[in-house]
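Go through this chain.

——
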Amino acid sequence: MSEKEEDYLKVIYQICEKRGFARSVEISEALNVRPASVTDMLKRLQDKGLINYEKYRGIMITESGKKLAKKLIHRGEIIKEFFSIFGVDEDNADTIANKVEHYIDDESFDRIEKFVKFVDSFKENPRWLEHFQEFIKTGELPECERMRQS
């Protein structure tokens, strides 16, 4: 799938989740594209079995379209959280995630997802993350206990 197809599918999914169906004008506004561009993309997504589209009747997302859209949205959220862990501000993390999610391979995404889960599991005592934040601010490695290798 192309990056644009993925973006359209996510928007269609989000609109359909809110009201049960989507209209071309809503998609056009959400993506800031011309209505003619929406119509062309709707035909492509329908040909791939991701949506059901009848002109003037609304757009419904298929089960396979929902499954793929959820996967894409999840990837974006995890990648955004990944960059947020490193102190990237929320808007920039969102922008980066929207770009990276289209190009990252499954193995790399799996590692990022596991890292995010790992970090989340240490929310109660994130000493190493606090040390990292200090390093970001000062450029100096903070004094901390280091694990000794035997």
In short: The chain is about 65% helix and 5% strand. The chain has a mean pLDDT of 89. The longest helix spans residues 63-85. The two ends are 50 Å apart (CA to CA).
